[in-house]
Amino acid sequence: MIELSGLTKRYGDKVAVNNLSFTVRPGIVTGFLGPNGAGKSTTMRMVLGLDHPTAGDVRIDGRHYEELKDPLTYIGALLEAKAWHGGRSAYNHLLCLAQSNGIPAGRVREVLETVGLTAVARKKTKGFSMGMGQRLGIAAALLGDPRILMFDEPVNGLDPEGIHWIRTLMKSLAAQGRTVFVSSHLMSEMALTADHLVVIGQGRLLADTSMADFIARNSRAYVRVRSPQREQLLDVLRAEGVTPVEADDGALEIDGGTSAQIGELAARHRIVLHELSTQQASLEEAFMRLTAESVEYHAHTGQTPAPPPQPQPQPQQAWGEGWRRS
Known about the structure:
By secondary structure, the chain is an alpha/beta fold. It contains eleven helices and 13 strands.
């Protein structure tokens, strides 16, 4: 378990991390999200004692990192993929880490096989590709068979097979009861991997919740429906007290009801439907909505900026009353 309490880091007048408090629990994959410059890497470095907090506290299984004997057996981390001497082989790099942490040499071969680097174990790491470097960094994190794993952008440089592999690995580690804390900008991958999310912006905590709850709270869910009897469907919906949003392609977007309710309503009135689907925002859309005011670096395309996202509409009371009338 990783516990942060009021964690703060200042660099002169710059506040990189601002009073962060949250707990990373075992048994699930916790995703760590935030725009560039939000303070994610600084936070992870403070967990490992690489940076010292200006204020607050961070503990690993109840202790500070510097209090851990043979720390690789408590927490394994991938922060910088190429943190090694390029003149050493992959095997020797891991062997040095093992010897300094009281880890048996046989464990080196085990982790090299786990990450798929057995064939290049004796080659110098200066010739490694980015993907091979990521695998070696992950091998180092796994070396001590730790209860806590922390990964910063673990899929960088990996091909599709490698991305699937690391996703499966993180899920299996969590299923074993370990604590898995992962930071990534690849939202589509995070949506498939993480069970819980911690989101920060400008060093402050914005969300600490489950994946499902995060998306539900920061996005608009609606039912999309298309019908060749569009005007008749509109009349029926309005009679129920519902005012749908008319999409550019002729479809109707309905807030506050379910696809089952709308389908049953259409069936009672003998209205043919060509589309009936529940629409839910992706993790990326929900993330962009929550962090819109926390982005430090903005690119300019020369196009007119899109309007800021609007809050999620609340279900209309008349909609529920309409079902009771039927």
